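Hi support team,

I've been running sequence recovery on a batch of backbones for a student project. Most finish fine, but this one hangs at about 90% for roughly twenty minutes before it completes. I'm not sure whether the input is malformed or the queue is just slow. I've pasted the structure tokens below so you can try to reproduce it. Let me know if you need the job ID as well.

Thanks,
M.K.
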């Protein structure tokens, strides 16, 4: 690089000398003036080139790395400061690089909660009891384990070399970070009872046999008081659960009102959409690319993180804690409930299942692969572990017991016959044209400042490409983008998105018109105290929904536009704005 700059400087000197000689030879003033103009253009350009960094300097790695010396008070909710930091300064702790376990050791096999036997439950009970007895000064203690989630989910750590807070939700960090968390948690539990084969269970709420709170989590030491009593067995989990706050004194959540069989069916269709139809491309499933620095942050969660991850958190959380349904209902306190771990073991399993269904796809961006986090292991050693280290569960020496993917056979059907729907949509289009001819302003139009979601929003969205071939659809997924979602007051926000709906009152995820859902749990991270010298920022969110299969099932692939409905499901939508909707294509 220095040699390149030296060469440019010598070149400039040579050019200056040559121009001086030429000007001396030429006597015509107008020619001299023209040449001086060219000279004044060339030399600044060369100086700028000499001073600009090379390509190797411009493309600095944007890997995520937490600054362990920066731990500070954060926000558990937008109205609740919390302090989750370790009791001792971490700056002097020796750090080791993560090493894969010995491949000759027995495989840890994670089993579904509904198939656990008494012997296993007895071992797990002993392990968690010991963990809960450890002092808070021990990073293996239950409190310190729970606080790990609080630390990384509320912005308690800054990124290294930046004042930007670090948050592992709502981006491509979500799956790998939680895999690391439960992996080390599992190893610690096993070591406390001297069992190298001990494995956490997973709560398979995605299959009919697992759609109730597991029986073992209704008894000590796995029972947790901060749960919704009305959702205890035999209540079936609602994977599209919605809460609202009609007034500050009347917090309530919406129960679906479905019977057990209908709720199971709705859950299965929801899983099909989140794992298959709406998740055909990497970013749709994994979330947006989050990179180092404020400019690299993003806010775009993948399908599974939105629901059922967020919705199950809310469904389990206590209705007696109306602020955010603590403990499971908000991130700072979620890991205090023992059911957090089988819940996230199932999330981790679904990541592995998705990769299997979609050709073992993996992100190849080195900024993602080399992003690192720190976790204590069972030997009290602080490990630096990279995302590339956790891509193979086989290398981590654990596996999941196989269960049937019942949801694979639950492709949804339209709510009404397609011919009926097309006639109604055609009449709606004609009515809109008449309004436009009368210069009426439709309520669904977007202003430069966006549109509030204080009521159902129905609008028409143009499609740039129609009648794509099978090959084109395989190469590019058509996505509906709800862009510029702005939540000025951090709070719970949920709305569902539908395409070509003719009757919003009967809509739920079991119908083909369902494109996806947006679920925002107050992370607190954007309200950290300014006196801590932390950069405070809020990014708008883009919701990206894969709709290629949906359009095929609705026989709308040849249509030049589609009707999109945003259906608010929480009171938080009243102050939420959306900048607009558009169609994009991703490979």
């Amino acid at each position: 690089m220095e040699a390149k700059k030296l060469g440019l400087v010598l070149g400039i000197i040579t050019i200056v000398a040559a121009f001086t000689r030429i000007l001396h030879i030429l006597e015509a003033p107008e020619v001299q003036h023209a040449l001086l103009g060219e000279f004044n253009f060339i030399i600044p350009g060369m100086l700028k080139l000499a001073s600009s960094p090379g390509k190797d300097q411009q493309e600095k790695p944007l890997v995520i790395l937490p600054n362990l010396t920066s731990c500070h008070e954060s926000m558990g909710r937008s109205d609740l400061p919390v302090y989750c930091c370790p009791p001792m300064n971490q700056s002097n702790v020796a750090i080791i690089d993560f090493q894969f376990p010995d491949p000759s050791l027995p495989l840890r096999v994670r089993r579904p909660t509904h198939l656990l036997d008494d012997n296993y439950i007895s071992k797990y009970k002993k392990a968690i009891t010991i963990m809960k007895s450890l002092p808070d000064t021990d990073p293996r203690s239950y409190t310190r384990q729970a606080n790990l989630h609080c630390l990384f989910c509320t912005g308690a750590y800054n990124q290294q070399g930046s004042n930007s807070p670090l948050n592992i939700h709502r981006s491509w960090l979500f799956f790998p970070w939680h895999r690391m968390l439960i992996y080390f948690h599992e190893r610690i539990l096993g070591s406390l009872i001297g069992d190298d084969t001990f494995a956490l269970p997973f709560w398979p709420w995605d299959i009919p046999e697992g759609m109730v709170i597991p029986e073992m989590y209704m008894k000590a030491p796995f029972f947790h008081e901060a749960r919704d009593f009305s959702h205890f067995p035999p209540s079936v989990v609602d994977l599209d659960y919605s809460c609202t706050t009609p007034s500050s004194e009347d917090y309530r959540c919406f129960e679906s009102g479905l019977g057990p069989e209908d709720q199971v069916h709705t859950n299965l269709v929801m899983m099909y959409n989140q794992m298959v139809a709406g998740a055909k491309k990497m970013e749709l499933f994994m979330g947006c690319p989050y990179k180092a620095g404020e400019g690299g942050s993003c806010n775009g969660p993948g399908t599974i993180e939105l629901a059922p991850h967020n919705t199950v958190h809310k469904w389990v959380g206590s209705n007696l804690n109306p602020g955010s349904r603590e403990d499971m209902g908000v991130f700072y306190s979620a890991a205090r409930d023992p059911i957090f771990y089988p819940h996230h073991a199932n999330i981790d399993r679904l990541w592995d299942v998705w990769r299997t269904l979609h050709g073992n796809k993996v992100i190849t961006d080195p900024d993602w692969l080399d992003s690192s986090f720190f976790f204590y292991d069972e030997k009290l050693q602080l490990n630096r572990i990279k995302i590339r280290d956790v891509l193979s569960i086989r290398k981590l020496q654990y596996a999941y017991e196989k269960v049937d993917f019942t949801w694979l056979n639950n492709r949804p059907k339209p709510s009404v016959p397609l011919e009926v729907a097309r006639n109604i949509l055609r009449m709606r289009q004609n009515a809109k044209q008449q309004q436009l001819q009368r210069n009426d302003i439709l309520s669904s139009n977007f202003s430069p400042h966006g549109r509030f979601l204080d009521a159902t929003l129905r609008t028409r969205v143009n499609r740039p490409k129609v009648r794509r071939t099978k090959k084109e659809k395989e190469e590019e997924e058509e996505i509906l983008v709800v862009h510029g979602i702005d939540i000025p007051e951090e709070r719970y926000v949920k709305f569902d998105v539908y395409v070509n709906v003719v009757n919003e009152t009967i809509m739920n995820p079991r119908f083909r018109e369902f494109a996806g859902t947006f679920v925002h749990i107050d992370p607190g991270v954007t309200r950290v105290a300014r006196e801590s010298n932390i950069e405070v920022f809020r990014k708008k969110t883009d919701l990206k929904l894969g709709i290629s299969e949906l359009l095929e099932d609705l026989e709308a692939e040849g249509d030049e536009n589609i009707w999109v409905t945003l259906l608010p499901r929480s009171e938080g939508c009243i102050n939420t704005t959306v900048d607009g909707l558009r169609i994009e294509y991703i490979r």
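--
Follow-up from support: It reproduced on our side and the slowdown came from queue contention, not your input. The longest helix spans residues 2-25. No action needed from you.
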